[in-house]
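go over this record:
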Amino acid sequence: MGLADIRLNVNGTLRPTDPIALFQSLTLRGGVENIWEPQAEALKSWTKLTDKNDVVIRMNTGGGKTLVGLLIAQAITNQTTGQVLYVCANNQLIEQTIDKARECGIEIASRYEGNWQNKERYDAGEVFCITNYASLFNGLSIFRNEILSGIIFDDAHMAENLIRDQFTLTIKDSEIYQNLINLFKDYFDRSSQKEDFEELVAGDWRRIAFVPTFFAWEKSREIREILTDSDVADKESTKFAWEHLRAHLRYCCVFVSSSSVQFSPSVIPLHALSYFQSSVQRLYLTATMPSQASFIRAFGVVDPKIISPGGKSGDAQRLFVFLQGDDSEQKNQAIDLVSQHKSCVISPSLKRLYEWQPKVNIFTSESGYEEIVRFKKSEEPEMLGLAARYDGVDLPGDSCRTLILDRLPLGENHFNNFIDQSVQVGTLRSSHTATRITQAIGRIFRSNTDHGVVFLRGNDLQAWVRNRLNRKFLPSLLQKQITLGTELAKKVQKDEIKYAELVDKILNGTKEWDDFYTNYINTIPAQDAGASLAWYEDALIREKHAYHKLWDGQYETAARLFSELARDIETEDYNLQAWYCHWSGLSYLARNDNGTAMKYYWKASTIRANLGRPTQSIVIEASSSVPRFQARRISSAGFDKIAYERKIRSISQNLTYGPNTSAAEEALRQLGELLGLEATRPDNESDSGPDVLWIGEGDTAVSSFELKTNKDKDADYSKDDIKDCNDHHNWIQINYPDKHAIEFIVGRLLPVSDLANPFDSLRIVEIEALTDLLQRLRLAVSDFRVGGNLQQQIQNYFNTLGLLWPRCIDGLKHKLAIDLKDS
C-alpha cells in the first residue's frame, strides 16, 4: 500500500464540553443507566460557574458525586485539551473510581503505586488522570512542574490530613530520633515540663511535647545538621516531605512523642504550589464538610462557590443505639445484637480493635482492596474491623448494614492531637470530631434506599453526641437521627421496648418502622453551626495570610498580622489567642525584635502553658487597669514580703507526690490564699465537697482540686476515683449554681480506667504545673518594691505573669480525663 492509499483522521471530532451531553455520548457498560436528578442539577449548576477557580459540589454520601466528578473532569479536558487530574484519597478509592469510569465508558489514565496507565493520551490532553493526594502533594510530585488545566478533589472532606501528611516530616529512625531528643532535652531540662518530657522519652504514649518555636529557632542550625547528616533527603520515608520543608524548618511546629519527632507547618503552605494559581479550575467533591472552615484549613480556599443539589440521595435511615453498661458490657451487648448480621467495627486504634477479637477480622493496608470486595460479597455474619479508618472504605447496601462506632475518634497526627488536646480550641476540636464521626457513619450508608444501625460504644462517645453544643457541627439529618436515638434510649432504659426489637424492625424494613421513623424524623429540629463558626472562619483566613508571609520571609508583615489577630481573637477564644500570640512571638523573633517576641511568648504561655515559656526575663508592663480583687485582698491582709516568701518555700516543700496527701492539700490551699483567692478545704472541714476549693470573682467562680498525689506511676484513675470527682462536680453545681467551675484531679498523668465515666471538662493537672504557677508567684513577689503602690504593682505583675483569676488556673498545663481513657 502506498501513501496515497493511507487515510489519517487528523481533523479530529468535536468533543462534548457539556457534562450532560458528554454522558449522553457514552457507551454505558455497567450498573449506571441514567443520571439522577440531583446529579443533573449539580452538572447544570457547574456549567454556569466554569469561569470560577474554586467550586464545591456538596452531595450526600451515596448521592453519586463520583460520576459527577468524572464527567466534569472529562468536560474540562475536552474544553482545554490540557492536563486534568482526578484526585482520590487512597489507592483503594482510585480502583473504585476506575471501575466507575469503566462502567460509564469513560476512558481514563491513572497514576498510582509508581505506575502509569494510558500516559500518552493524558499527555495529549485527550483523557484525564486518576491519582491520589499523596502523588499530587508530595514534595517530589511528578505533577509539580506540569501546567494543569483542572483538578477534581474527590472526598475533599478527607483532604486536610492527607495533604498535611505530605508536608509533615516524620522521624522514626532511632539514631536520628535520639539525636533530636538530646538536643531538645536542653530546653525541657530547664522548664517545668522536665519530668513530662522524661516520661515521654521513656515510652509514655499518652504524651506529646511541643518544642517551642523560640527554641527550635535558636537551634535551627543544629536541627538541620542532624537531619542532613542523616540523609533524610535521600531516604524513601522522608525525602518527599523534606523537599517541602528543607528551606522552611524554622517556621514549622516540632512535636515529640515516644516513637517519633514530627515537623509540620502551622498552616499548609499551598500558596507555593502552582496547582493553586488562578489559571487552574478546581472542583471539590464533598459529602460531610460541616463548614467552610474545613476548606480554609485544607486548601486555603476562602470563598468557594458552593453547589448543593436537592434530592434525597444519601438520606439513609439510621437507628442509633446507645449501648448500655460499662465498656465491657457495651461490647458484649453489641456483639450479641449483631450476631446474625455482617458488621463493621471502627476503633480509634489497633490496640482498641484487638479487644473485639476473636470475633473481628482486622483489615490493614496489607489486606488490600480484595479483602473489602470479599467482605462485601460474603453472606456470613462476620465482623470487619477498621483501626482509625473513618473514611475510604465503602460498604453500601446489603454488603453491611450494622456499624459499631467504638469510642470517640482521635486525631490522625501529632499536630491535630496537640491542637485538640493541649491547645484545646473548643470550636476546632468539636468540628474535627464531628467530621470524623460523620465520615465513619458514611461507611455503610450510600443512598436513600440504605437503612441500618449505628451502635455507639463508649461513654465518652455517647456523652459527646448527646451534647447539643457538639451535635450542631453534624449534618442536620444526623442530628435528627441522634435525637431520635436518645429518645428511644430512654424507652429502652424504662424497659418499654428492647433494642433487639428495634434493630430487627429497621433491618427488615418493616412498614411499622418506616411509619414511625418518618413521623418523628420530620418533626425533630436541627441546629446550624454556621453562625457560631463565622468568627473562626475569619480567623483562619487571617492566620493563613499571616503564616504565608512568615513562610515567604516577610517577617514585619507577618508580625503585624499575627499580633493584630491575637488581639482581635481574645473575646472569642483565648486558647486560640495563645496560639496566635506564640506565632506573633516567632514573627518578631525572625525580624530581630527579641523584646517584643518575648512579650508575646510569655503571654501565650500564661494562657496555655503547653506552648512553653522562654527563660529570658520579661519587662513587667505598667497597667492602667484598676487593681482587681486579688490585689486588694493581698494588700489589705497586711502584706509582709519576708513572710510571704517563707510561705512560698513551705508550699514548695509540701506540694509534692507522696503518701502525705493532707500536707499537699494544705499547701495547695495556701497557694490559693497567696494568690489572693478565698481558699478552703471543704472535705476536711465538713466531710463534704472537694479536697481544695479556690473561690474567685466573675463567671468563673470556683476551681476545685481532688488530690491523688499518692498514686504510683503504674497505677490508674479508677472508677471510684472518678466517681469522687463526679460527686464533687454535683456538689459544686448545688453550692455554686449558674457559675462556671474549673475542676481538677491533681496527680500524675495516668490512664483513666475503662470502667470510669469522667464528665467532659474534668482536667488532670500534674504537680509540675502547680509548681510552675508557684514559681511565677515567687518571681512577682521578689520584685515588689517597698514604698510603691502595692495594689498596682500586684495588678501589673499578676497581669503580665498570668496570675490573674481565672487565667491562673485555666492556663495550667493539663489533660482532659476523657483523653486519658486507655485508647
User: Anything to note?
Assistant: Residues 530-551 form the longest helix (22 residues). The chain is about 45% helix and 15% strand.
